[in-house]
Design goal:
Structural class: alpha+beta
Number of helices: 3
Distance between the termini: 39 Å
Strand content: 25-35%
Largest sheet: 3 strands, antiparallel
Shape: elongated
Radius of gyration: 19 Å
Low-confidence stretches: none
Mean pLDDT: 85
Helix content: 25-40%
Amino acid sequence: MLRKARELGFELAGDDERVGRILRRLKQKEHDGFHYEAADASFDLFLSNELGGYRPLFRLESFRVIVEKREDGRIVTEATVKVHVEGSGSSHRRGQTAQ
């Protein structure tokens, strides 16, 4: 954990009092189903949050999910998510349809 933290630019030493707390939280998160081994960005966010440096880049305004079953049996889903992006002064919409 310390090696990966250093690779990501976090200054942590083995004798740092925060390491024990971070390891306990990491084990709990992994027990809850989170996986960080191949997810550097997720681990970076985890450490930022644990060390107090996390700043959200956007804020969720709302979301909508529509699931439609067509006459031929196909299921079509559509999701719309509205977020406020910090520093942009406007809302952005992103929708994606999966079939």
